[in-house]
Amino acid sequence: MKLYSMIGSGNSYKVRLLLSKLGLPYVHVAMSSRDGSTRTPEFLAINPIGKLPVLELDDGHHLAESNAILLYLAELHHTEPTCYLPRMPYERALVFQWLFFEQYSHEPNVAVRRALLTYPERAARATPERLAQTLAGGNHALGVMEQQLARTPYLVGDCLTVADISLYAYTHDADVGGFDLNGFPAVRRWLDRVAAEPGHVPMMDPRLLEAPEVFMPGRAE
Length: 221
Fold this sequence. Notes:
alpha+beta; globular; 5 strands
């Protein structure tokens, strides 16, 4: 497989994280949505939306949208005793629920505020009103997670699912966006728990900086 991703992007990171935890080999192609490379005709032929990440499958098909990629990989490589995507309908629906929450309640606040404070080209949009709005929205989203994680070790019960992988990506460095995780102790314990799972890799994995295309071997190799 080949993964087109942006090294500093949480949406790209969540896919790399699951690939690593599953122990799947792939070729990483470093790109950036900030330099125009995702707007070229060549890339738009792969993903007309012009966004990262995109997973190129062994048969040549392409799959975009980070959470869709997580679901595909979890479905394809589900093995006991892992439960990245539960088999029971209700638990599976809970995973979907958290994935929708990530895209509609968490990412638009936690990730957007991080981007506003990090990327110079977005500085003009970092108005006091926008920063206050995303801070409030992000703290509310973190509070929802805190309530659940105070009851269960992971977001959907007792084992790691793609819901945890998805929400970990932009939560683990929420402090970059000005969020104080000291007020969310259950979230902090969950972050440590996810990081302690086998196959964990950091967002800024130094191996990805070696070259534009880097082969990432699976754990078995």
